[in-house]
Amino acid sequence: MSRDTLTALVRTIPDFPKPGIQFRDITTLLADGEGLRELVERLVAIARPLDADLIVGIEARGFILGAALATALGKGFVPVRKAGKLPGPTVGIDYVLEYGTDRLELHEGQAPVGSRVILIDDLIATGGTAIAAAQLLQEQGASVLMALFAIDLPDLGGMAALKAQGIPAEAILTFEGH
Length: 178
Hints:
single chain, 6 helices, PRTase_dom, adenine binding, alpha/beta, two-stranded antiparallel ribbon, cytoplasm, AMP binding, adenine phosphoribosyltransferase activity, Rossmann fold
């Protein structure tokens, strides 16, 4: 399956969640069996040579891609969630959004000191959430080998921001605009 065919499986919803935004909805790609298989195979091809210990997925669609990637690689999966969603002891990081702050958490000890991880999410826009997740992992002593995404919105600068933080990053698909 070509990159153009994969791209065509992503639905664009204009003016969501606010006017002027072109929301890139990956759920249509996820619902297509061939498309999902191809996306996961492309993620695996990038991730396999890194030989990570763990795959870490960012809530929520990063859970879907992360679990598929972890299964294909025979690695464990660790979720990074919004505050208050995980039972038991957690560690977290607060980060700034365009209009306020948010918090990400993971279970204490699930990214052990010295672990080598790949961070994954469905889409990177400004990079704020991905950078916060990477910082949280690094604060726990994990090494973030790479951040992987199904979709990059390069006009919003997230991929460049991750790379400026010293975190290699790649995406399978690219959409211009917001």
